[in-house]
Amino acid sequence: MSESSTKKAAERRKSSVGVSARDYGLLSALVVIVALFQFWFTDGKLLLPANFNNLISQNAYVVILAIGMVMVIIAGHIDLSVGSLVAMIGAVSALAISEWGQPVWVSIAVSLLVGAVVGAWQGFWVAFVRVPAFIVTLAGMLIYRGLAIVFLTGGTIGGLPQGYVAIGAGWIPDWLGSVNDLDVLTMLIGAAGAIGYAFSQLRARSKLISRDLPRESMPLFVGKIVLIAGAMLFFAYLLAQHNGTPYVLILLGVLVLAYSFVLNRTVFGRHIYAMGGNRFAAMMSGVKTKWVDFFIFVNIGVLAAIAAVVTTSRAGAAQSGAGNFYELDAIAAVFIGGAAVQGGVGRVSGAVIGALVMGVLNQGLSIMGIDSAWQQVIKGLVLLAAVAFDVVNRRRAGAA
Amino acid sequence: MSDLILKMTDIVKEFSGVRALDGVSLDVRRGEVHGICGENGAGKSTLMKVLSGVYPHGHFEGRIEFDGEPVEFRSINDSEHTGIVIIHQELALSPYLSIAENIFLGNERASRGVIDWHETNERAQELLKRVGLNEEVTTQVLHLGVGKQQLVEIAKALSKDVKLLILDEPTAALNDDDSAHLLDLIRGLRDEGITSIIISHKLAEIRAVADTITVIRDGETVDDFSMSDEDNSESRLIRSMVGRPLDNLFPPRTPDIGDEVFRVENWNAFHPVDTGRQVVKDASFYVRAGEVVGFAGLMGAGRTELAMSLFGRQYGAHVSGRVLKHGKEISTRSVNDAIANGVAYVTEDRKRYGLNLIATIAANITGANLRGVSNYGVIDLHDEIEVAEEYQRSLNIKTDSVSRVVGTLSGGNQQKVVLSKWLNTTPDVLILDEPTRGVDVGAKYEIYGIINKLASQGKAIVVISSELPELLGLSDRIYTISEGRVTGDVLRKDATQERLMQLMTVGEN
What we know:
The structure holds two protein chains of two kinds.
Chain A: H1 3-41, H2 49-74, H3 82-98, H4 104-128, H5 133-151, E1 156-157, H6 162-169, E2 178-179, E3 182-183, H7 184-210, H8 218-241, H9 247-265, H10 267-277, H11 279-284, H12 289-315, E4 318-319, H13 326-336, H14 348-367, H15 372-399
Antiparallel strand pairs in A: 1-4, 2-3
Helix pairs in contact in A: 1-14, 2-8, 2-9, 2-12, 2-13, 2-14, 3-4, 3-5, 3-12, 4-12, 6-12, 7-8, 9-10, 13-14
Chain B: E1 4-15, E2 18-29, E3 33-37, H1 44-52, E4 61-66, E5 69-70, H2 76-82, E6 84-87, H3 99-103, E7 110-111, E8 114-115, H4 117-131, H5 146-159, E9 164-168, H6 176-191, E10 195-199, H7 203-209, E11 212-217, E12 220-226, H8 234-242, E13 260-270, E14 278-288, E15 292-297, H9 303-310, E16 317-325, E17 328-329, H10 335-340, E18 343-346, H11 350-354, H12 361-365, E19 374-375, E20 378-379, H13 381-394, H14 411-423, E21 429-433, H15 441-456, E22 460-464, H16 468-474, E23 477-482, E24 485-491, H17 497-504
Parallel strand pairs in B: 3-10, 3-11, 6-9, 9-10, 15-22, 15-23, 18-21, 21-22
Antiparallel strand pairs in B: 1-2, 1-4, 4-5, 7-8, 11-12, 13-14, 13-16, 16-17, 19-20, 23-24
Helix pairs in contact in B: 4-5
C-alpha cells in the first residue's frame, strides 16, 4: 500500500468511528442503568433469573411497538393509536376463540389481518388524503378504544386456551433436558446467538477490509464482540436457570433482525429515510412517497396486532383497558433511542435499546417497591433528560 | 485619514483545529458602501458572525473597534444595541404577521406591555416610504415576494437606528428589477449617512455599488482597494479571489453534434393553484446528441416551470404536449417514467428539491437509482460506497469519505453530489437548472468542465441560467423564453447579450 493510500485509509477509519460513537453511547447508558439497579438499588435482584425472565416478557410489547414506531417517526409522522389498537385487536382475538370457537392459529391470523386493515385505513387518510398523522391516529385512539369496549361489552374475556396463553407466557420445552439445573436448549440457543453474532461481524469486517472501506479500530471491534456475545451467553445462563427460553424472546429476536435488515439494507427502508430527511427531494428522485407512507402505517398496524396477541396471551384475558399508554411507551423508547422529532433519523437498534431502558426502569423500580405514580414521574424525567442530552449534543456537533 | 466606523484587526477564529479566519483585518469608513468578496468557504460569513456577536467575545482572537471604541459583543442583541444590523441571505420574517408587526418584532411600540397600534402602523408607514415599498403596513408578509420581503427587513433595520447595515448576498434570490431597486436603496441610505457592508457573488453588482472592496481568501485578507483606484477591474477581483488569473472563465470545447435526441412539442402547463393562469404556452424545442442548449429568460418567465412540468409533472396543472426521444414518443408522466426514459433534471434549489442534507454523500448519490446497487430490493452497501467513490473521483467532490453527511459540504461540492445523483441514473438527456447557483468561482469552472465532458460523451444537455455570460460561454444554441413562450432560437455565433435580452423581453403580441 502506498503511503498516501495508507494515510487515507487511516483517516477513513477515524471518521467512521466518530459516526458510530453515538450508538456506543446509547449502549453504555443502558449498561450503566442496569449496573445501577443491579448493584446499588436492588441488591442484585434485578438480574435474578426469574426477574430477568419477567423483564423480557413484561416489556416485549414495548419492543414490538417501538420497531413499528421508529419507522413511522423516521418518516416524519407519529402514531398515537397503537395502545387502543392493542386493546381492540386483543378483544377480536379473544372473541375468535371464545365466541366463534376458532382454533388458536385462526385467532392469530384474524388479529394480524385486522391490524393490517386498520393500518391501511389510517395509511389511507395520512398518505392519500394528507390528513396529518397526529390527527388520524388521535381519532384512531378514540375509535379503537371505544370499539374495544363495545366488543367486550365493557368487561373482559378470560379462560383462553393453554396454546394461546403460551405465546406470551410460555417457554420452549426442555427437549434436551438439563445439566446442573441448566436448560441445555437455552444454553445452546445462547451459544448459537453469540457465535452467529461474532461470525456475522467478522464476515462484514472482512468484506470491508477486502474493499478497503472505513471500519472501526481492532480493539474496539474485539471489545464490542466480546461484550455483546458475552452478554448473550450470560442472559442465556440466567434464563436456563429459570424455565428456559420464552417464546416471546424468539419472536423479538426475529422481529429485531428482520426490521434492522429492512431499514438498513432494503430499498424500502432507504426510501423511508429519504422521505424523512427531505420529502421534496425524495419525490423528485422518484420515491413513491404516498405508497411508502401507506405501507408504514399498514406495517405498524400489523406490529400492533402482534403486540396485542402477546399482551392478551400473557394476561390470559382480553380487557377493554389493555394497552393503556402503550403508544407513549413506544414513542418514548424511540426518542430515547436517538430518533429525531423532525424525522429522517432513527434506528431499530436504538429503539430496542430505548425500550430496554424503559423496561429496566419498570422492572427495577417495581423491585424497589416504588409506587407506580412515582414510577411515571421518574420515567417522564428520564425521557426528558435523554432527549435533552441528545439535542444539546447534536447542537454542539453542529456548531463545530 | 478618514474616519473609520469599524476596524477589525487580526481576527482569528478556529473550529476544532481548523482556522476559518487566519488574521483577517477589515477597515470600513463612515458613510461608505463596503463590498466583501471571496469564494464560498473563504470566511466571509464567519467574519460577519464574529462581528455581530453570533460568536461571542472570547471565542475568537483579535480586536474590534466600532465608532472608535473597542467593543466586546456577547450576543446579537449587544451588536444591535450598538447599531450593527445583519440581514441574512435566508430572510427571517414571520409569514403570518403583518409588515408593521414584523418591523417592530422584538422592539414593539408599547407602553407597559400593551402595543400602541397607532404608533406601530404610523412609524411602519414612514419606514416603508423610506425604503420605497408601496404596500399596506397591515399586509401579511407571506403575500410579499422575496424582493419586497428584503425591503421589509431593511425597514426593520432602520427602525433600530442602524449605523452599520450588513447585507449577506442580498440579491441572490432577486430578479433584475428588484436587485436594481435594492442597490439604489443602499446608495440612498449611504447618502443619509448609513454605512453598509455588502457581501455578494455578483461581481458586477459589487463593483457597481461599492466604494471600497475587500477580498478574503482562505481566511485572510488578500486585497483591499477603492473603486477610485486605477486598477479596479473585474479581472483584478477574480484574480484576488481565486489566487490565480482566470483568463478564460469557460473551459474550451469543440462541439461534436449528432442526431436529434430529445424533442418537446406544444408543451402547455398551468399554475398549480391559480389553474386559470397559463405558465407555459405551447413551448417546442429540441436538443441533439453532444449539444448544449441554453434557456434564457427573466425570473418568472417559466423556465423552471417548463422543466419541472416536463420532469414527472412535478409542477403545474393541466399539463399537455408531446415528448419524443430519438423520434419516438415517450412518457415523462411520473418521475420514475422520466428516469426510466433517460431524462434527468438537476434542480435549481438543491437544498429543497435536490438533497437529503442529513444523509450521507453515498446515500444521496444512489438516491435516484437504488436499483443500480440493489438486488430484489436489498441494497448492497459496499457497492453503494464504491459507486459513490467513483463519482467522488470523477467529479472531484472534496471530502475525506463518502460516508460524510452532505450538509457539511460547501455549496460547490453539494452541487457535485446532486449532479452525481443524476448522472448515476445514466440519462441521455440532462436538464440542468441553474447549475452554478451559490457556487464559488473555482467550483463553477469545474462544473463547466463536467458539462463539457458530458456533451462530448454524446449526452443532450439543457442548461437553464439567469446569467447570460454563462449561457453564452457554455451553449451551442440558446432558446429564449418570455411570459411562458419560446421567443427565440439563437445560434451561439449570432448570440449577444443584447440580442438575447431583447428576445427575453418580447411581450404578448
